[in-house]
Design goal:
The protein is mostly helical and 679 residues long. It has 33 helices and no strands.
Amino acid sequence: MEGSSSSPVEENGSLEEDIPDIPKDVPRTAPKMHLEWYMAAKRGDTDFIKKKAEEDMERPSLAFQESPKSNTILHIAASSGHDQLVEAMLEIQYELAQRINYAGDLALHVATSAGHLSIVKKLASAELLQVKNNEGNTPLQVKNNEENTPLHLALINKYKEVVDRNLVLKNKYREIADFLVETEPEVSYYLNAEHKSPLYMAAEAGDAVLVQLMIEKASRSEPFEESKSIVHAAITGKNMDVLESVLRKHPNLIKERDRDNEGMSPLSYAASIGYLDGVRYLLTKSTDCNYESNRNGFFPIHTASSKGHIEVIQAFLQQCPDSIELLNDQGQNILHVAAMSGKAKVVSKMLKMPELVMLINEKDGAGNTCLHLASMGCHPKAVSILTWDKRVDLNLLNKEGETALDIAGNYSGEIPSFREGDLPTEEFKPDMDLGTPQLIPILLVHGTWRGKPQTLRLRWLALKHAGARHAPCPSWYRGNPSSSMPWDYYKDRVNTLLLVATLVATVTFAAGFTVPGGINDSEPHNGMATFLLHHMFHIFTISNTIAMYSSVIVVVALIWAQLGDRDLVIASLKFTGPILGLALTMVSLAFMTGSYLIVRDLNWLAYLVLIIGSFFLLILTILFAPLCLPSSLPHPIFRYIVYYPFCLLIIVSRSNTNDGDETLTTRSNNSYHIPLATR
């Protein structure tokens, strides 16, 4: 029994003898079963097999008949579900039940995988279970090349998704698994190549009935040391009956660390996947695990915070109120971790919890507040939520002498995207989640990414709109940041705006002389516009005139920018942006009114033109509002004006991807609301 955790070589004998390595570039001859024998085995022709066996009383032919994958006639019969042939073969030569094929499978493995219960019972009969291989293992204990026992194979097939949708097939494997557990219960703890026991697999699948059967029948007091944590598997399955059964049998496993999940305790793992019922149950069993950190320095409540599970956090605070004071290795509380991980919804709810007020402006080991960390982690949505809360101090300094705005504006030379700036050049793995705890130590180097400094325009906008200020002399300051921007960047912007303004001027100039409806040719109004007295024509003319002169002003201002003075270029760009926005808006309005005049006699089409035009004028106004208003908006009404364009930019740039709800039990509203406590 104790040899059950050994390798396939130890279980089944020397693999070099049974399944030799295939040499490369060397001709070889594969085993070949006689055609008549093979076809008889496939169709289950018992009479033919018996006849051939009687013709050869010494039975050498039957014993040496193998297919190219080393399957015997018994393997083929077991796979095809031929009960009578299997029974006949066991009577003729029962030793075939101990023969393995190329994959290391006995006929019992094959029958189990195929779901033939009656054949499994024949191959696992009391007589055959007395027959052991060279290592002293019965057929139910033998492992194949992947170290799977027949019970492993039964569960692998039972829990397949395609089988799960087929109740008949699922019941077959359930019956096979129940039979194998009843016959050899100790196999429930045997490990395969993935260090998974059948008990682990059943717990992971949430199969409470089978888990209970395995625990009741097996006599082992502890799982093998190499085994994956059965408690973690029970938590993965999110079945309370399974979790209770496992901990009732093995109560000491409540503190077992998993080898594959950063050394998480069961409580930390339940918190990480958002299993609320599991967290509550484990806390009722013992609260000690709540005060034990993982290898990454996170306590269970920090893990829940980094994953965005607010209900789990509330469960921790209810059972262990002093969890508020727990700090990770970087001296960060749960609000720090939520902000750093970009869990905006969690941050929003924490700000509304009276018991967490003292955490809002608390500093971590590096002197960073939650606002610093949200800015450092490139999470504009979390930054925006924090800036809307009047209790958040926007201008606190960390140990580097930086405010949150300094961190957001900490860049030189390169223009970042809305979504993200440069990624770390050291210690960063491509598959690492930007909200995971492993990344936080990498971020906490001089308050930014290690290597290239980076920024995110949206977080900078959120801070500037809230009235955040720079530190008196931030550590990264090296003169005017704009002076380090490459000249080609300004040149391209100037040329682009100049082209757009020129096109607007050309179009509006032409529209001024080719007015809708044309020119009147009859006296006494010869040369006058046909729609001169129509109020829509008045709007068209005024809009077109404003667009014309606005675009001309932009062109002239940008010509000044061509002189090459950097300060003059920056001033020109700031001046021309709002005016060009006004010109484009007026062009759109002129087009709408002109189109209306042309189709005014067809009422439904005329009104449709007005509706479509008004809708897109609204969108245009929303998009240009942040460009026209000053970056610092101390008055709340201005913040409300730019709030919705800001939210739209977050959605478009997918800057809120880290805020996804990762739990099935947390019920959070996906909408993004302005906090009630506003500045």
